[in-house]
TrEMBL record:
GO annotation, biological process: chromatin organization; DNA repair
Cellular component terms per the entry's GO annotation: Ino80 complex; Swr1 complex
Domain of life: Eukaryota
SMART domains: AAA
Species, as recorded: Actinomortierella ambigua
Reaction(s) this enzyme catalyzes, per UniProt: ATP + H2O = ADP + phosphate + H(+)
Residue ranges that the Swiss-Prot or TrEMBL entry lists as coiled coil: none
Every AAA+ ATPase domain range: 63-365
Name of the top EC class for this enzyme: hydrolase
Gene Ontology molecular function, alphabetical: ATP binding; DNA helicase activity; hydrolase activity
SUPFAM superfamilies linked to this entry: P-loop containing nucleoside triphosphate hydrolases
Identification of the protein by name: RuvB-like helicase
Annotated EC: 3.6.4.12
Keywords: Activator, ATP-binding, Chromatin regulator, DNA damage, DNA repair, Helicase, Hydrolase, Nucleotide-binding, Nucleus, Transcription, Transcription regulation
Length: 474
């Protein structure tokens, strides 16, 4: 039922995933980023900007806005998005999508995007349910002497004003037993589902305190009628409503994830229904967040779909991330900043992330060491930081666990400089790998890199890494 919980659970299960050290954006109450907080280090400007967006989302004020996080690889774009996801309220949906996920044979690209959009819109539905709330005066259960046959019994409940005796069936007796309900407890029974919950012990029984132990909660005996109406609120996403109401699929598809394409009539019906509920005050829309990582992988058809979809009055906040410079827009021959068409760029607020300083890299590495449960000497951290600065942050992060395995092999308790050196020589980073290719390229298969065919960002990257020599050999 809960919309965002499935995603949250997944991130929780990701034991030491790439971003498991991130617990939020690390902002203080006035939305100022702390230098290091909640696993986040530096990147202060981008975090401040993300904090402002977050605030707007939490207030439910904006919908259909789009933000682009632009920056070089490994500058924390995905990390900031994860931080935002963790700071959102429990019932604000957050959907994460790698742009390549939408290229599937089972459904069209636009269908996949539509589903992602609708997953990111929550509908908060208010329902009134009838409950019985009172203090248990007496539970009387009649057991047949054989132990067979139907159990039956009586439950006496009271409020400050009235007292009523209810007949109990076998199911209710089991439920009462399971909750260990006794005389003197204050309980609620949901009339529709029969679910029993214990609120605490009645104050009138406070003199039993010694017998009950110190963790007992005491509550007032309820006032007024035994039967009450209570408002329950739960949030589902538009997509979940689509799936449940799509006749060919049914709600089982929610569990298998095998939803297929959903007919547009179904969506129209849901939209009409939700609008009705909103007018009647039964439901409200909770615009969530759709995060599209590596957005430059989308093609021109998807971009024009996005342009249109962002104008819908039930659109979520879309956050995109791209690490491209001036790059070709997929599906066209045109080059454009970040690999996105200019008309889409025009709708975006751009947050840029910048390279980390040496201190920041060291701090991130320290946090990752803790997260991966690796003890490392100060000297080793310094050298790993240098490696991080000269190669990439990701490469340095990857060396942490590898070096701890090497350290373990020599039965050391902490990773030292020698271990880092060892793994550094075992695993090549991108620059040394290119160097290697340059030296031995004649021995590899398909050695026919034509630089002109490749996208500019990669060419720049590779040629910068390989030096000018590579260009002449290609
Ligand atoms: N400011 C930061 N604080 C803490 N960890 C970070 C920060 N920036 C990046 N990282 C970590 O560094 C790694 C690479 O960052 P990532 O967000 O994946 O880069 P990008 O998405 O920009 O390519 C990830 O493991 C990420 O969690
Ligand atoms: Mg990323």
């Amino acid at each position: 039922m809960a919309t965002s919980s499935s995603l949250r659970d997944l991130t929780k299960m990701e034991r030491i995933g790439a971003h498991s050290h991130i617990h939020g954006l690390g902002l203080d109450d006035s939305l100022e980023p702390r230098q290091t907080s909640q696993g986040m280090v530096g990147q202060v400007k981008a975090r401040r900007a993300a904090g402002v967006i977050l605030k707007m989302i939490q207030e439910g004020k904006i919908a259909g806005r789009a933000i682009l996080m632009a920056g070089a690889p490994g500058t924390g774009k995905t990390a900031i998005a994860m931080g935002m996801a963790q700071s959102l309220g429990a019932d604000v949906p957050f959907t994460m999508l790698a742009a390549s996920e939408i290229f599937s044979l089972e459904m069209s690209k636009t269908e996949a995007l539509t589903q992602a959009f609708r997953r990111s819109i929550g509908v908060r539905i208010k329902e009134e349910s009838e409950i019985i709330e009172g203090e248990v005066v007496e539970i009387q259960i009649d057991r047949s002497t054989t132990g067979l046959g139907q159990k039956s019994g009586k439950l006496t409940l009271k409020t400050t004003e009235m007292e009523t005796i209810y007949d109990l069936g076998a199911k209710m007796i089991d439920a009462l037993n399971k909750e260990k309900v006794m005389a003197g407890d204050v309980i609620t029974i949901d009339k529709a589902s029969g679910r029993i919950s214990k609120l605490g012990r009645s104050f009138t029984r406070a003199r039993d305190y010694d017998a009950m132990g110190s963790d007992t909660k005491f509550v007032q005996c309820p006032e007024g009628e035994l039967q009450k109406r209570k408002e329950v609120v739960h949030t589902v996403s538009l997509h979940e409503m689509d799936v449940i109401n799509s006749r060919t699929q049914g709600f089982l598809a929610l569990f298998s994830g095998d939803t297929g394409e959903i007919k547009s009539e179904v969506r129209d019906q849901i939209n009409v229904k939700v609008t009705e509920w909103r007018e009647e005050g039964k439901a409200e829309i909770v615009p969530g967040v759709l995060f599209i990582d590596e957005v430059h992988v989308l093609d021109i058809e998807c971009f024009s779909f996005l342009n249109r979809a962002l104008e819908d009055d039930m659109a979520p906040v879309v956050i995109m991330a791209s690490n491209r410079g001036i790059a070709r827009i997929r599906g066209t021959q045109y080059k454009s900043p970040h690999g996105l068409p200019v008309d889409l760029l025009d709708r975006l607020l751009i947050i840029s992330t910048t390279a980390y300083s040496e201190d920041e890299v060291k701090q991130i590495l320290t946090i990752r060491c803790e997260e991966e449960d690796v003890a490392m000497t100060e000297d080793a951290k310094d050298i790993l930081t240098r490696i991080g600065m000269e190669t990439s942050l990701r490469y340095a992060i990857h060396l942490i666990t590898a070096s701890s395995l090497v350290a373990k092999k020599r039965k050391a308790t902490a990773v030292d400089v020698a271990d880092i050196k060892r793994v550094y020589s075992l695993f090549l980073d991108e620059k040394r790998s290119v160097q290697m290719l340059k030296e031995y390229q004649s021995q590899y298969m398909y050695n026919e890199v034509d630089m002109d065919d490749r996208e500019p960002a990669i060419v720049q990257h590779a040629s910068a890494a390989a030096g000018s020599q590579m260009d002449t050999t290609a």
